[in-house]
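Schema walkthrough. Field components (list of strings):
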Amino acid sequence: MSTATAEPTRLDDPPAPRRKARRKGIRLQLVTTPLIVLAVVGLWKLYVELSGISPFVLPAPEDVAVAFVEQITTPAVWTEHIWTTFYETIAGFTIGIAVGTVLGFLMGRSPTLNRILGPFVITTQVVPKVALVPLFILWFGFGPSSKVMVAAMLSFFPILTNTAFGVRSVPAGMREMMRTVGASRWESFRKLDFPYTLAHILTAAEMAIILATIGAFVGEFLGGDKGLGRYAVNLQNNLQVPQLYGAIVIMALYGFALYASVSLVKRLLIPWHDSVVIQREAA
Amino acid sequence: MSAPAPLTETPAPAPAVRTRGLGKTFGAGDRAVAALRDIDLDITRGEFVTILGPSGCGKTTLLRILAGLADATAGEVSLFDDAGAGTGVGQATADGRISFVFQEPNLMPWRTVRRNVELPLEVRKVPAAQRRARATDLLDMVGLGQFHDAYPRELSGGMKQRVAIARALSYRPELLMMDEPFGALDAQTRDHMNAELQRIWMESGTTALLVTHHIPEAVFLADRVVVLTGRPGGIREIVDVDLPRPRPLSLLEDPDFVSRVARVRTLLGDR
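Field assembly_structure (string):
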């Protein structure tokens, strides 16, 4: 049949130049990232040597490196602190996703519910959350539960707003198409609203995992005896400054790893989405 | 068996669509805007009817009412009026007897072409093996046999709209409604798609109802062209197009065809 001749054929793979550009981009990153880190560490070392600054304010990079290696090879740092913070972050993040998506879908689809719940949702966000932490500790104790709640409260909001926005963005034509093929509301939700909104939820999840991490740290700063935040406070109290810097490095790597995991999940779950396609082809 | 059936047993042409006094008014009171008035329309099964009208005349509204996407404010609609008691639009939708092709393809970007075509069958709980077989047949029919596993973003505009047509035909509707399905395509692709649509319609044996503002398209495809007046849209005239099928694209230059197009154009311009 001669039907398809008049039309362009499909783009099976990104054209060769683009793929080359992508590989080039990754290679560039592999060079620039270590170079910039090295440059910063070099400047740091130079400053410490030339200024004679007190090691209690800014220890030398090699002292921090030694402390860091010592810390991550100490099992207690993993079992006591990293694990505790991980548990709090993931539990809070999970609650945030659950509450945020359910409320987001409801408020996105029902203007009435949006009016009723809207002010209360905003209230939870405009109140300074750090001020709520002592209250949470009062309610949920010094253990992980209070930190889970802080993490959940911080992370549910972007999920909620993005879910509501996503479900409102479903094209009217696609909704009508579902109606004309005889889909019930539930089927329309399952086969249209949910997959469509998933892209928005996952984008918010990248933000929410960072907020959940911050929530766990802040909760630990203000009370308790375990977790990376508490660990950092203890090191500061003991004036173990290189170790404090080491703890900050651990926190940064920890947050980075969680963000990268969520980002990976996003790319796996919505490979069809324009943003992912562009990233895949260009980055 | 080989003897020809007596003439008296030939069933009377069964109506697919019947409207009486159909009207639509948007808003109420001082702000009321009449979009459609007094539409009496009868469409016989197996016919290809096109609806043509000046822009804003309510032709899309008419189609949306017939598809259950909008409600009429006056008159009545009955579909598949076999025994004097036709079916309501809602029931016909539920029974999978009507389907709709939109101006936009409305494909789901997360589904492959094949799974987009299968969507209505999934909704109707058709087993996977049957869904797959049906999608394969349909994609062959619309000339996309090579593109089962492609995603919509990999297709051109014309190809996407063919997927949408295959999806609309998946559950073998008795009435296929199309709202300017080729409006976004360039002229060459549009002509090509019209020829394809004629072939698909002849193969599927469904009743087709297509809204357009493109006069040659309306005449090329139709057994009858329903020409509407300006707002509020009423039926100005119904033009029979008794040209043999399948109609080749060369027909577009045929004097017979051109004179019909000119006639319809006069009807449209002469408000």
